[in-house]
Amino acid sequence: MTRRPVRLRQSGWDIQAPGRQRDQKASGVTLTTVHTRHTVCRVPRQTPSRVYEQRRDLGDRIRIRRSRLRVTQERLAELTGIDRRTLQRIERGESDPRYGHLILIADALGCTVVELLLEE
């Protein structure tokens, strides 16, 4: 008797039993994931373009405030305790910052999170 993998699908998360392999088609791309232990993997979805635009806008606002204060990315990284590469990705709009990171960045730049998120 072969054990079937246990799957729980809820809001884009897929949990699968160990030692199983599956092929998955999403956005025309086939993904194969081999599970060695109970793992959780993210099922890719199409991200709306407005998300990328807002992410870039947020990065631009952070970069503008930082440059007005004449603070380098390295100095901002020291002030916030966030890795410099993470700050670079946030400023370029390549990653979504954690809320805690937004609080630290806003404090270091002398503004509030709301001011960072709102358009100037």
Biggest sheet character? 3 strands, antiparallel
The CATH topology of the largest domain: 434 Repressor (Amino-terminal Domain)
In CATH, the architecture of the largest domain is: Orthogonal Bundle
Can you identify the CATH class of the largest domain?
Mainly Alpha
Distance between the termini: 64 Å
What is the CA-based Rg, rounded?
20 Å
Q: Beta-strand percentage?
A: 15-25%
Oligomeric organization of the protein chains: single chain
What letter string, H or E per element, gives the SSE order? EEEEEHHHHH
Q: Taking strands numbered 1, 2, ... along the chain, how are they ordered across the largest sheet?
A: 1-2-5
CATH homology-level superfamily of the largest domain: lambda repressor-like DNA-binding domains
Taken from the alpha-carbon principal axes, the silhouette is globular
Overall structural class, as computed from helix and strand content, comes to alpha+beta
Task: Give your account of this protein's structure.
The protein is an alpha+beta fold and 120 residues long. It has helices at 49-68, 73-80, 84-92, 99-109, 113-117, and strands at 8-10, 13-16, 21-26, 29-34, 39-42. The strands form two sheets. It has a three-stranded antiparallel sheet, with no helix packed on it. A two-stranded antiparallel sheet has the order 3-4. The longest helix is centred in the middle third of the chain and has 20 residues, at 49-68.
